[in-house]
TrEMBL record:
This is Hybrid-cluster protein. Pfam families: Prismane. GO terms for cellular component: cytoplasm. One of its GO terms (biological process) is response to hydrogen peroxide.
């Protein structure tokens, strides 16, 4: 195996024997084969759309879901990838039949052989070949030829890495699009863009650095559209988030913990547990759920439990109820809680029950509810013994922040607010990430900080006080990683007031990345021309110094100075 798609990749170069995340070589190889097969399916779907006007809703949904399943910390179950590859080839056959029925020939590109696929044909052709795929063994043998290795040999590390930058950005945006789709919000252009990009990665144009970079920024543009669509999906379904105080102290009673990013699943869980005497808690990136009027109205959504994803083995082992995993980040479970955890959607863990949606999209959470009723839940005694924590406040989406914009603008104009920091993105376990915890210690009191993503867990329970002369908290959490959209809406509105552009505002972006959703957000920011972004704790292993040089030159991308947060703070204040 060779995987370097996330920030914690081994030695900062690549996981080759087993993933730092726990991904086995088998799962890594099956994921490579799935991505290869999906590139072929997407190429066919792109051709069907552009040559024959054929739109296949099943194919559209499948492609986004399948590539979402290969995101870091989503799915570790080899049998699920066997199913995904099988389904990809079945959908390919069905779409081919539709094209044949319409009298449309396959694209000429199907016979092209791109050197970066090594000994493998164009993925579209492979999908159509009568290859005997008896099961895992056959797939592993073929999958070994579809990894990054052949691309690095044929294209060199810089170009192969830039192709991966595009692929990882697509994984992140497909994940966000899939969330929006769960809430009934879709956009034909998004499916078309994703598939055109996957088709591009199979075309001769993908051997040109300039064209690959352009395609990356196009993916950034599509992701911005997707984040807007997801924001609208959330707010039109659950209302605009409002500032909400959330307790971190459990209450006595049976309990279910919902982790991941999927608000639709949280809603379904709240509906299905209503009146059953079960309390529902959020975990990780579900915390912002408490700010939505359509979710906070449920009295049995009682609080938040635990910290960022990488602490989940401690948090889940200490949770006396059932655990529902809606999306990333999930880790291979400890025996201590393996019998209590359930996966949903694209997530998967070997030996852990998986809840599938029915044809209408409904998910029956009865097994999770029954398990929660069997387990003890929090008892009055156990709660009594737990150290008491302060509440945290969530719910500062763009609507809430813009409602206090006149006060913020006045504070900037009168010098009471000198600078705004956007410290967003992912958390992780590496020691270098202490940089983000320490950064806040150097922030002058006449500054504000906007957080989003699970990186917030480094400081979410600290009291930063209010902006001088106002009742506006200095720390405003804007939500999940995809709520980078909200931050950009606020920045754009401020720029309008000050008759300038986002780059000229007293605003610094210091982003912590970990997985591919963060890659998609970064591509969106670059597409929008946002400059001077700090990125850390380490730069992506898939970007060579040459590729980083291009981004530094065009956007003044700045590697975070993890060993000296004070120096970074000084530079940002200038
Ligand atoms: Fe390694 Fe990250 Fe890939 Fe897991 S996802 S194998 S940790 S690079
Ligand atoms: Fe976190 Fe996994 Fe990226 Fe949505 S939950 S930000 S890492």
């Amino acid at each position: 195996m060779m995987c370097y798609q996330c920030e914690q990749t081994k030695g900062g170069t690549g996981c080759t024997e087993i993933g730092v995340c726990g991904k086995t070589p088998e799962v890594a190889t099956l994921q490579d084969l799935l991505i290869y097969s999906v590139k072929g399916l997407a190429s066919l779907a792109h051709h069907a759309r552009t040559a024959a006007g054929i739109e296949d809703a099943k194919v559209n949904t499948f492609i986004n879901g399948a590539i979402f399943s290969t995101l870091t910390n989503v799915n570790f179950a080899d049998d699920r990838f066997v199913d995904f590859v099988t389904e990809s080839r079945q959908l390919h056959a069905q779409l081919s039949a539709k094209l044949a029925a319409a009298g449309v020939a396959l694209p000429a590109s199907a016979s092209e052989v791109q050197p970066w696929f090594g000994s493998m044909p164009h993925p579209l052709t492979w999908n159509s070949q009568a290859v005997a795929l008896g099961g895992v063994g056959d797939m592993l043998e073929i999958g070994e030829q579809t990894g990054i290795g052949a691309r690095q040999v044929a294209l060199g590390e810089t170009l192969a890495g830039l192709q991966e930058l595009l692929m990882y950005g697509l994984k992140g945006l497909a994940a966000y699009a899939h969330h929006a789709e769960a809430l009934g919000h879709t956009d034909p252009k998004v499916y078309a863009d994703v598939q055109a990009s996957l088709h591009f990665l199979c075309s001769p144009a993908a051997a040109d650095v300039g064209q690959v970079l352009d395609q990356c920024f196009k993916a950034g543009a599509t992701n911005f559209r997707v984040m807007e669509m997801l924001s609208n999906a959330h707010t039109s379904t659950f209302g605009h988030p409002v500032p909400t105080s959330v307790t971190l102290n459990p209450v006595p009673g049976k309990a279910i913990l919902v982790t991941g990013h999927d608000m639709h699943d949280l809603h379904m869980m709240l509906e299905q547990t209503a009146g059953k005497g079960i309390n529902v808690y959020t975990h990780g990136e579900m915390l912002p759920g408490h700010g939505y009027p359509g979710l906070k109205k449920y009295p049995h959504l009682v609080g938040h439990f635990g910290g960022a994803w990488y602490r989940q083995k401690i948090d889940f082992a200490g949770f006396p109820g059932a655990i529902a995993v809606t999306t990333n980040c999930v880790l291979d479970p400890l025996q201590a809680y393996k019998g209590n955890i359930y996966t949903i959607n694209e997530t998967g863990l070997s030996g852990v029950p998986h809840i599938k949606a029915d044809a209408t999209g409904h998910k029956d959470f009865t097994p999770i509810i029954n398990r929660a009723l069997e387990l003890p839940g929090f008892t009055a005694e156990s709660v009594e013994k737990m150290p008491k924590k302060k509440n945290v406040t969530v719910g500062f989406g763009h609507n809430a922040v813009l409602s206090v914009a006149p006060q913020v603008i006045d504070a900037i104009q009168t010098g009471r607010l000198e600078h705004i920091f956007l410290v967003g993105g992912c958390d992780g376990s590496e020691p270098q990430r202490k940089y983000y915890s320490k950064l806040y210690q150097y922030m002058p009191t006449n500054t504000m900080v906007l957080t989003l993503g699970c990186g917030k867990f480094r400081i979410f329970d600290q009291d930063f006080g209010n902006l001088p002369g106002t009742d506006i908290p200095r720390l405003l959490d804007m939500g999940q990683c995809n709520d980078a959209y909200s931050a950009l809406v606020v920045a754009t509105e401020l720029a309008k007031v000050f008759k300038t552009d986002v780059n000229s505002l007293p605003l610094s972006l210091d982003l912590s990345w970990f997985e591919q959703k963060a890659v998609a957000v970064l591509l969106s920011l670059l597409h929008l021309g946002v400059r001077n972004i700090r990125l850390g704790p380490r730069l992506p292993a898939f970007l060579t110094p040459e590729a980083v040089g291009v981004l530094v030159e065009r956007f003044n991308l700045i590697p975070a100075n993890v060993s000296d947060p004070g120096a970074d703070m000084k530079m940002m204040m200038q």
